[in-house]
Amino acid sequence: MALADGEYLISAHSDGLPLDRAVRALFDQGSWSQVRNFIRTGKIRVNGEVVTDPGRRVRGGDRVAIRAAAPRARAPGALAPEALVYVDAHLVVAVKPAGMMSVPYEDERDTFADAVRRVLEKRADRALQPLGVVHRIDKETSGLLVFTRRASAKRNLEQQFRVHSVRRIYLALAHGQAPSRTLRSRIVRDRGDGVRGSTRHPTLGQLAVTHVKRLEELRGASLLECRLETGRTHQIRIHLAEAGHPLLGEKVYLRSYSGPLIAAPRLMLHAQTLGFEHPVTGQALDFSMDPPKDFQAALRELRP
Fold first, then answer.
1. Which residues lie below 8 Å from residue 106, measured CB to CB, with a gap of 6+?
2. In a 3-state reduction of DSSP, which class is residue 94?
3. Short-list 37, 8, 250, 277, CA closest to 134
4. Fewer CB atoms inside 10 A, N or C side of the chain?
């Protein structure tokens, strides 16, 4: 049977399956190519969000909507113009979607920095320079990033990050009932098992400080506000995992966690707030962006 327009409920038997297998299971038959084509061209929504990755895992109870006449999804790596929330001759502040690398790494070709530059080109912005990178967020993390457009602006912002005067607040969904507290440790590249982590050695690694505030108690999880005092690689992920509360969707920092894992479509971390001084005018700039639909859907599912 061909895919038919409508809304469908993912059964408990399909919990954890890739989206293409779960959709095909909704019908008596149907070609893999048709199912995957519908997904890749934006004809299928999961809990109201267009999903174009056939391998995206679904959960029992997810709502799948099929619309054959839906407009074709934006090509991978493309950004809507509204993703750029602030632009001037010195800075660009933009919202990175989950699933995209912030900047080039190894053989990664289509990055968020590339996508931002393409939007600027479409705006006929003639003062284009290579975007200056002053900070990053993980590929699976969504949220606010700032790039610089002048060398002088880059030097100024790098100094603000160096002295920890930049305001960075993340929203996180973490396993268990995580208390409000300050997490402080020295993080090393390899804690002895090939994975980043904290050390008790007083002179090794880099100091990392995360201020955690529990915003909401959920079913088996917590909604947390995490304010970075420092900005080390994977800092929030490491601190929460070592405190016994790994993020939902975490795949790396789980070795010391033995509790039940709550399924999530990706790492449930969102860079919500970014604040700093304009490197030229000195004006205080403060930006805030609500988490995307996948984060909000996971949050709704966990509320009592």
1. none
2. strand
3. 277
4. C
Tens digits of per-residue pLDDT, 20-64?
888 888 876 667 888 888 887 888 988 887 887 788 888 888 889
Q: Sign of the CA dihedral 92, 94, 100, 102?
A: positive
Structure tokens at 164: 């920890």
Per-residue pLDDT reduced to its tens digit, 251-279: 999 978 888 999 998 999 999 999 999 99
Q: Is the pLDDT of residue 115 over 90?
A: no
249 within 8 A of 99, measured Cβ to Cβ: no
Q: Name the amino acid, one letter, at 229.
A: E
Spatial contact of 142 and 98, defined as CB atoms under 8 Å apart? yes
CA distance 151 to 128: 12
**Pair of tokens at residue 86:** 């602030």
In Å, what is the CA distance from 87 to each residue of 112, 140, 156, 169?
Answer: 16, 24, 17, 21
Rounded Cα–Cα distance for residues 198 and 211 (Å): 16
**Does the annotation count 138 as an active-site position?**
yes
Nearest to 100 by CA among 145, 134, 35: 145
H or E element, residue 279: none
Residues recorded for the chain:
304
Which of 92-107 are b and which e, b meaning 16 or more Cβ less than 10 Å from the residue's Cβ?
Answer: bbbbbbbbbbbeeeee
Rounded to whole angstroms, how far apart are CA atoms 65 and 94? 29
Contact criterion met (CB below 8 Å) for 237 and 180:
no
Of 232, 222, 116, whose CA–CA distance to 168 is shortest?
232
Distance CA 151, CA 129 (A): 10
Closest CA to 7 of 51, 50, 45: 45
Q: Which of 20, 62, 138, 294 is catalytic?
A: 138
CA 264 to chain centroid: 12
Q: What is the pTM (predicted TM-score) of this model?
A: 0.76
- Residue pair 120/92 in contact (Cβ under 8 Å)? The answer is yes
Q: Work out the percent of the chain whose per-residue pLDDT is above 90.
A: 57
